[in-house]
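User: Second chain of the day. Same drill as before.
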Amino acid sequence: MTKSMTKAPMIRSLLLEGRSYDEIVSAIGCAKSAISFHASRLGMGRQFFDHRFDWATVRAFYDMGHTRSECMGRFGFKETTWTIAVRNGWVVLRQKSPKAPVLRRRAPRQQGTDRSGYTPEQRRDYTNAYRDRRRQYARERLGGVCVVCGCPDGLEFDHVDPGTKTMAIADMWTANRASFEAELDKCQLLCEDHHDEKSRLEFVAWNKGHGKDSHGTVTCYATHGCRCPSCREAHAKYQKARRRPR
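Assistant: Same format as last time:
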């Protein structure tokens, strides 16, 4: 005699008691297919399922305005049972009332404003104020005075090591804070005179490193402000050639 045959009387008795498949599985430990087999032998198919719950009472309870979850908790069936009951017409679902469409009218844009409602003048003033706050923050972070002479006026941002320069500080007023501060940490404050002097020395050092003579060129005269005799002579020749009639 097989194990399923020894459980057959127990399965049939539990089915006759009205136990669910899950309850029988928990009590005996058999497969649901075995329960279905014995249920069909006892004539407990769709008809048994139909009369297992008082669907008229369930439907009346549902029609009173209760939800599906409330019906399941009240009568003890599961979601699958509810789906089968709806499919067989034992419970008729309520028709959902259509929601009234919500008409949202966008406020008309005023003439001369952008999508946010700001005029070009307001947008410009906001941008300028934001840049001023960034500039003031940068100066305070770097000490607020020239690192050479201690002058607090006419300050300019200078990269201590030009080789680490990624972008000019003047081009980063609207950059994200992390990138702005990372670039700011490479800089120092210099007054205009000391900044020009440092840039001139860097230019001379760069040209020497590349085998070029920095003096005696128009670039050294115009860009770096060198007024040595050779640079003056180069500038004079350039201006004379420029004014020569063609």
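Residues 53-93 form one domain.

User: Great, on to the next one.
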